[in-house]
Amino acid sequence: MKKIVILISSRGSNMQALLEAKLPCRIAAVISNRADAQGLEIARARGISTAVVSHRDFADRESFDAALAEAIDSFQPDLVVLAGFMRILTDGFVERYAGRMINIHPSLLPAYAGVNTHERALQDGVKIHGCTVHFVTAKLDNGPIIIQAAVPVLPGDTPDTLSARVLHEEHRIFPQAIRWLCGGQRWLDAQGRIASNRIEQVGTTLISPGLD
Ligand code: GAR
Q1: Strand runs labelled E in 24-100
Q2: Per the CB 3.0–4.6 Å rule, which of 37, 89, 127, 184 could disulfide with 32?
Q3: CA torsion sign, 54 to 93 to 89 to 141?
Q4: SS3 label, residue 32
């Protein structure tokens, strides 16, 4: 059975969704860059190994990433899963896990890479927003896309209400992406594209606001 290591920075609701999803892989460990990440408690309560590599203990990104890689590699994972891991990673770190590190991002990439995605979507007045699971490459929030979910932006939405709607979908698509990758139904091909041995199900159209 394949092994995954999950990296978190705080709340850990995506991590929790993965722990509850009965994935076809073993969750070898949850690692955080913050000792006070709430998600660590949730993982410990389920008997999952946890580790903390605090970025504050290191003088620069290179030495932090080296220590993080050492912690990750001690569990020998097939897949590294960034679930709300809020650190910019060095190119060397990304290269080390090329093709075996994925991230969840709260926007329909390539729109709204970076932070404050919900605030920026509301400011722009977009009618559809969402979330993306993608492979991690050197360019921030830019790797091959595995799955996305779109949600309507509703009148009166605040960053909090929109974020909650998106997060609900994050908890659905993240387990699906890992199920595909660990089950061998999707992988990254030599050209860096997502390949599949299944006929893809078509998604449904979202029109927002709806037609009269
Ligand atoms: C999630 O919305 C995730 O998509 C986002 O942080 C949140 C973590 O919540 N990640 C990023 O913004 C990465 N660029 P969680 O800790 O409850 O899973």
Answers
A1: 25-32, 50-52, 79-82
A2: 37
A3: negative
A4: strand
Q: What is the mean pLDDT of each run of 10 residues along the chain (212 residues)?
A: 97 98 96 98 98 96 97 98 97 97 98 98 98 96 97 98 98 98 95 93 96 96
Do the Cβ atoms of 61 and 71 come closer than 8 Å? Answer: no
Q: Is 168 a catalytic residue?
A: no
Ligand 1 centroid vs 202 CA: distance in angstroms?
Answer: 26
Give 181's DSSP letter: H
Q: Which of 88, 105, 160 to mutate to test the pocket of ligand 1 (most atoms within 8 A of CB)?
A: 105
pLDDT of residue 60: 96
Residue 141: per-residue pLDDT: 95
CATH T-level fold of 3-196: Rossmann fold (3.40.50)
Catalytic residue (choose from 105, 118, 129, 171): 105
Hey, which of 7, 8, 9, 14 would you mutate to test ligand 1's pocket, going by the most ligand atoms within 8 Å of its Cβ? 14
Identify the pLDDT of residue 204.
94
**Using a 6 Å CB cutoff, which residues line ligand 1?**
8, 10-14, 83-84, 104-106, 167, 170
pLDDT recorded at residue 97:
98
CA 74 centroid distance within chain:
21
Looking at residue 120, its pLDDT comes to: 98
